[in-house]
Amino acid sequence: MKLEKLIDWRRLEAKFKQHYRGKGTCAKPIRLLTGLEYLKQIHKLSDENTVVMWCENPYWQYYCGMQFFTHEPPCDPSS
């Protein structure tokens, strides 16, 4: 939760929106996608394991910008 406060999410959104917008059907929030990628990298997880861990961890969900805890996957691991 401390890390979430240290990141300039608006700056990341401005930097990455060109890479995420208009790709596929329904674009996911950039904070969610960049948060998942960061968590995947620092924990050295596969795409599938990152999504599984996200579903089980309220801290990860908060970090990625979620307001409420959910057991639903945020996206398909292949995306």
Keywords for this structure?
79 residues, mainly alpha, globular
Concise synopsis of the structure shown:
Helix content is 59%, strand content 0%.
General form: globular
Return residue spans where pLDDT drops below 50 for at least 5 consecutive residues. Answer: none
Give me the Rg, rounded: 12 Å
Number of domains: 1
| Average pLDDT number | 88
Strand content: under 5%
Order of helices and strands: HHHHH
Q: Percent of residues in helical segments?
A: 55-70%
Ends distance: 25 Å
The largest pleated sheet is described as: none
How many alpha or pi helices?
A: 5
Structural class: mainly alpha
Query: How many beta-strand runs?
Result: 0
Q: Can you offer a commentary on this structure?
A:
The chain has 79 residues and is mainly α. The chain is built from five helices and no strands. It has helices at residues 2-6, 9-20, 30-43, 47-56, 58-63. It is globular and about 30 Å long. The model has no long low-confidence stretch (mean pLDDT 88).
Task: Please write out the topology.
Blueprint lengths: L1 H5 L2 H12 L9 H14 L3 H10 L1 H6 L16
